[in-house]
Amino acid sequence: MVSLNDVDRRDGSALPGGEDRRSNPHIRAIFESACQLTAPFFDPAQGWGGQSLTMYARQALREAYPELTQQDTALLFAAVQRFHRGVPSK
Questions:
Q1: Helix (H) or strand (E) holding 81
Q2: Residue 43 forms part of a structural domain
Q3: How many domains does the chain have?
Q4: In a structure prediction context, what are the per-residue pLDDT tens digits for the chain, which is 90 residues long?
Q5: Which domain holds residue 47?
Q6: What ranges make up the beta strands (E) of 36-84?
C-alpha cells in the first residue's frame, strides 16, 4: 500500500512566517481514505476490455461520501486522480 508520505515527504504545513493558503479541510480530512478507496480503479492491471476503470472511481466517491456536494466530489476526484497518476508503477 502506498501512503501519502511515500509520494510527498513534505509535511504540508505553511512555511515559517507564511500564511497557510490551503482550504477545504473537510476534503483534506478524507483524502487519504479516498485514495485507498479508489486505488483499484486506477490500477493499470485492472480493466474491462482493455479500458480503464477510472470512470467508476467518481461513483465510488459519491457513494462513500454522500455528504459532499457535487463540486466537492469533483474536487476530491481531481485530487485523487492526480495522486494516483503521480504514484510510480511497480
A1: helix 70-86
A2: yes
A3: 1
A4: 444 444 443 455 555 666 666 788 899 999 999 999 999 999 888 888 878 888 899 999 999 999 999 999 999 999 999 999 886 655
A5: 22-86
A6: none
